[in-house]
Amino acid sequence: MRLRADGFFGQLGVLVERLRESRGRTLPTLRQLVGLSVAVGLVVGCARGEHVKGAWVQDLTFKGNKVFSDRTLRGKLATERTGWWPLAARRWHDPAALDMDLQRIPAFYADQGYFDARVTDHDIIERAGGSVDIVITIKEGEPTKIEKVNFVGSANPAQVKRIQSLAESWDVSPGKLARYEDYSTFKRKAQDRLRADGYAYGTLDSNLAVDRDRHAATVNLKARPGPLVHMGQTSIEGNGGIPAWKLLRRVTWKPGDLYDPRDLAATQGRLYYLGVFSSVRIELPPEPIEIADVRIRVTPGQLHELKLGGGLGVERQREEVRLRASWTFSDFLGGLRKLRLRAKPAYVVIPSVTNPQRTGPAAELDAQLTQPDIFGTNASLRGMAGYDLLITEGYQAHGPRGQVGFDRPFFRDRVQAGVDWNLQYLDFFNINRDVFDAQKTSLGFGFKDPYRLAYLEEFAQLDLRDSVIDPRYGCFLALRFEQGSPLVGGDFRYIKVTPELRGYVPLARRVVIAARGLVGWLNPLVGGTGTDSPVTRRYQAGGPSSHRGFGFGRLSPQLADQKNRLIPVGGDGELLFSLDLRIDLLQLADNWLGIVPFVDAGDVTARFDQLSLRRLHYATGLSLEYTTPIGIIRGGAGVRLNRLSGAAMPGMSPENPDPGQRFAFHITIGEAF
Hints:
alpha+beta, 16-stranded antiparallel β-sheet, 3-stranded mixed β-sheet, 8 helices
């Protein structure tokens, strides 16, 4: 006998209701509990039996759909078709799930502005082998468009104008489709805009009135800004043994300041960065008030954090397997100090496992101690000691390094500035003497063995992007100065300046244009012609976050050894320009899949005065991007468009780097810039 699943659920509901009625009077009897368990078991067993013995879905198609493709509609349903590839897991036909899907389709169309759409028919066609084809017939109807947008409320004229402009940017304007997604997003952003103007309790009431007969919609908006709010006194709760005054130093507002949600976000980020709290909540009084006292509730978290990871890097001239481990101690010995121990071992093959010309281990080992709140400010003092094992095409090296640094944020962390002192000592081995001669080199690259490098580095950056990970609008400006001198402990005298500018402009909801420009100038103070610039500080471009027409570090002056292998040696000048068109195509598993057509132009030369805008290396290409919880996974290819000619003779430099190599491939995590 084969019982229906819905009958089981009915019986199960009766049992549950009887047990619920017995609460407060008597405990359920053993018989009742056994009966409930058996019913649950029979339900599960029956459901499984239907999956095993029922039909599986071979194909799922639609008729009458013109606005949305079969692929788009299938992505909204629980019913799935079985994959065409061998050994694909079968997708079983579930009548209950299909009934729900037939209701989901009109709901999806209504969200897109098609309120008359409906399912007119569906067929289940039996096929040989126990499979079925499902065909769903849809009548889409006419789209409903916004006829007018009514705005009322007590917002000032400037606010009204900004909200109206925001509505137009999200297609909530006359003539546009009445899409619920656009309307909902606009409503949320408009409310955020009110609060960004200082109205902490501001809300936006709205409704979408649809006239189905006329296929017209009216959007009614009413702003309730409430009082203009200024910040009062701030208190900390839940901080345990950590002094409240130390935490209050990380607050970005002062009593009397106008409310700004960016202050709250910056303060929350600063407190999270300490690594001692698992949650940080910032609360204002529940009732609207002009002077709002702020309560910050923190929850202590784990003070020790261990991270382990690994990866595989594959490029044209380098392949490696790498591991990564870090152990962070927050509030180390009190005082909110942070100690981080890090190890990044790897095994490298150059250029590839099928053609191993140089192989060996590589590693970065270091320990860094950070002390926040120096001099009673938000400034931090850092000290680091480490040890490196390097392997490149031309040499291998190992030795210690150290750093002492000081940095401070300004203006809600939008501005960052600091200074570092760096020291590195390297002992070289397995040197390619055809290119690097410890006594003399044909181009003179400050190659010394042993190698003692010390330099001061000052930096300042202005970050006006809306997001650090995936920016859609704003700009970023960074400027770095570097001075090497025996006065700070090194063997090299030089000055290095590297300014960089990035900009982001949204062209549409899912389209962003991103641009970058970078200039690098390294000036050796002895000889003045590249004879004393340290080899590890010279510019090398190329790779997934640089010029994408070249492999990592391959856009560089190169020398050929006796086997005609081209070895990058770096240069004193760099120019790099990049232009991306970042397009979100569709959502897969609630994450965006996008494409990025790009153009890169740049060059690295032995001397800065050899750079020329007329002789840049150009490349174009395409990347695929997928947003995941760990970041944006990006892969693609770049195609060089010019400067491919030239051949290298032993001991000589080719006319162009990597002549004849037109393509470069990349796979990485994160945007190019």
